[in-house]
Inverse folding.
């Protein structure tokens, strides 16, 4: 056997082993209750209260409701008072748990006030969900409207608020030797993503910050995990129709909570894990081709226009019925 033949045999074996390991890891995602079991008392054992930012709708509301169903009291935070109060009533009516409402704009310098309002609570879980997408329709960086203000808002909302909330709540978890922090990122942060450059980059910070923090505090008994969803039917995603890939917020959150022991980053569901691996396997030359980027813009624009027309039609029909 010559050296060239030995090289190709070794290379082939390495490729088979690599994909075999990936297949094994993916198979674990199919059976989270077997591979990553959580006892029934897991959530309440972390502490009495859960704190969820951006909880007035979508994924944040779903996390607040799911954690209350697990027996936790919840603090819900957002800048929309009426929506928060509606969520609070829903949680109390369906679970009977206590709810504390904090109306605040996390893009502002409000964290000393938040710390005062959270003082004395035994907080076992923090969900940093609040986030801002500069523009639903993808566009190049310099084409963003009011670019200077947009940069500041995205950094304050997606980056600063998460770090500040961790600063407020993490010390209590460290003292008690337990706790869970879930930081919501995005599937598109898996690669440098053109046309969503600012948003994707801000979510990369979420991932790296979370992974570094987990390495620092794992020995303290604290779980810090990034959850990076793709399609979830929320306002940020223009309320897309739910299907096998685009999940409802409630379905996504219930699935994602099953993977709390699956590592410092998950995509939250089997289908989103597959999408993540698929995205990572596409050569950048294809993904970044001008025709692909233009097609993405056109697709989102058409879908947005279609949704607007449907909403207008529904509104008109409702008005006629009245």
């Amino acid at each position: 056997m010559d050296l060239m033949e030995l090289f190709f045999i070794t290379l082939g074996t390495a490729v088979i082993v690599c994909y075999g390991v990936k297949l094994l890891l993916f198979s674990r995602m199919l059976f989270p209750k077997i591979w990553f079991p959580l006892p029934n008392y897991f959530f309440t054992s972390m502490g009495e209260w859960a704190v969820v930012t951006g909880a007035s709708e979508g994924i944040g509301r779903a996390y607040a409701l799911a954690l209350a169903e697990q027996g936790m009291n919840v603090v819900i935070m957002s800048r929309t008072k009426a929506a928060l109060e509606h969520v609070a009533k829903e949680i109390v009516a369906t679970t009977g748990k206590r709810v504390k409402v904090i109306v605040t704009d996390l893009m502002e310098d409000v964290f000393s006030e938040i710390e005062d309002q959270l003082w004395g609570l035994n907080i076992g879980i923090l969900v940093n969900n609040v986030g801002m997408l500069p523009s639903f329709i993808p566009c190049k960086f310099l084409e963003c409207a009011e670019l200077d203000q947009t940069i500041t808002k995205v950094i304050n909302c997606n980056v600063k608020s998460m770090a500040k909330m961790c600063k407020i709540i993490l010390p209590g978890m460290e003292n008690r030797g337990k706790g869970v922090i879930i930081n919501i990122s995005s599937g598109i942060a898996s690669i440098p993503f053109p046309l969503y450059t600012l948003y994707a980059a801000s979510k990369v910070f979420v991932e790296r910050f979370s992974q570094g923090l987990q390495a620092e505090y794992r020995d303290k008994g604290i779980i810090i995990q990034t959850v990076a969803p793709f399609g979830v039917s929320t306002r940020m995603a223009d309320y897309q129709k739910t299907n096998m890939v685009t999940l409802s917020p409630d379905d996504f959150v219930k699935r994602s909570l099953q993977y709390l022991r699956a590592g410092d980053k998950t995509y939250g569901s089997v289908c989103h894990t597959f999408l993540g691996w698929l995205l990572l396997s596409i050569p950048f030359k294809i993904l970044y081709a001008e025709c692909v980027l233009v097609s993405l813009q056109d697709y989102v624009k058409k879908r947005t226009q279609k949704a607007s027309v449907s909403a207008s039609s529904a509104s008109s029909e409702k008005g006629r019925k009245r």
Remarks:
- Strands lie at 49-53, 73-78, 99-103, 123-128, 179-184, 222-227, 265-266.
- Residues 290-321 form the longest helix (32 residues).
- The chain is about 55% helix and 10% strand.
